[in-house]
Amino acid sequence: MQKLTAEVVGFFLWLLNISLNSTIRLKIVNGEIINKSHRQGKQLVFAAWHGQSFPAIYYFRHTKMCIMPITSLRGKILVNYAKKYGYQIVPYPEFGTPGERIESAQRMLNTIRKGFDLALAVDGPPKPAYHKIKPGVLYFSQKTGYPLIPVGIYMKKKIALFWRWDKYEIPLPFSDVVIAFGEPFEVPADLEVAKLEEKTKELEKMLYRIGDIAKQAL
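Above: the chain sequence. Below: its structure as tokens.
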């Protein structure tokens, strides 16, 4: 029953996503950063707020992009419609054992090293917290040597699902939307654990800053 629910809801979410995003007026800010990094042979780890992912899921469709949804029903719904856009999926066990989580993270590292970029909702599950970055986000950048790219998204006309923890935003038809990319954020391979929180706060400030830049671009 859960599988059928995920397939049905996933299909209608994909239909909603493609229908709305095909009408928006999209502006990209600093998009050349992506091409420059790829020309240098570097894959990228994109960092964005969970509640602003709706236009980004459409924008990155049919590129070499992977995501790490949780293994709950919510995650399975995302898997069903992300696959229609050609995303590579590496599930993350929300309530898994430490060993299962390490195995999942290793599979993701192996996928990135095969030439895929990674998109992360930096405040998302497990244990989501609205616009608060979790230190684990830095892990993939640190282990691969690939930079984090802060992503700011602004929708001029939208609805916000205020009852959700992430206040998920959906653009209205024909809305102006901006996706802005920040400068690469490097995470040293030898970063000390004691400095992890400081580095996390630095990335958080960059995300707020690129969000302001996206808003000011209209």
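The chain has seven helices and nine strands.
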